[in-house]
Design goal:
The protein is mainly α. It contains 7 helices and no strands. Helix 4 packs antiparallel against helix 5. It starts with 15 loop residues before the first helix and ends in a 13-residue tail after the last helix.
């Protein structure tokens, strides 16, 4: 939690009627409604995430997934602080939170590279040799005596 911010005092839900009672241009009203829906989604995700203790959650996932979870949590928290600064009239681009977000993004890229290396296909030598063996036509003794054409499905020109 960001020090000095009391999230419990912030109104989390705003009905469309509340938005319509104010005199906002249509474009802003639509954006406010979409923003309110997004906040609701974030609130639901946070409630789901907070319903399980951190130690229980970390026991259930692999270390790479733990790192991803920690980085996403950090990025989300810092992004929310970025928005808070913007609402307070402070330019977040000139605040240390910008460097923190860049640092977290760097680590997210490193974790992504590790995950991609893990997913990269490894050469199955047995499968590769079967593929090559089946791709190359070899006449067997039975086909040599009965026909000079390759077997069905293995049409190759003979020199």
């Amino acid at each position: 939690m960001i020090v000095g911010l009391d999230y419990t005092s912030l109104p989390m839900e705003m009905s469309e009627d509340d938005i319509n009672t104010e005199e906002y241009p249509t474009e802003i009203r639509d954006c406010l409604v979409a923003f309110e829906k997004s906040l609701g989604s974030v609130d639901e995700m946070l409630k789901t995430m907070m319903s399980v203790s951190r130690s229980e959650l970390l026991q259930k996932v692999e270390p790479l997934e733990q790192a991803k979870l920690d980085l996403v949590s950090l990025y989300t928290l810092n992004s929310m602080f970025w928005v808070y600064l913007a609402t307070q009239g402070i330019n977040p681009k000139e605040h240390p939170v910008k460097q923190e977000l860049e640092r977290i993004r760097t680590y997210m890229n490193k974790v992504k590279e590790i995950a991609d290396k893990k997913k990269a296909s490894k050469l199955d030598k047995g499968a590769a040799s079967r593929f090559v063996r089946n791709a190359l036509w070899e006449p067997n003794a039975e086909n040599e005596h009965t026909s000079k054409t390759p077997a069905k499905g293995k049409k190759r020109k003979m020199d």
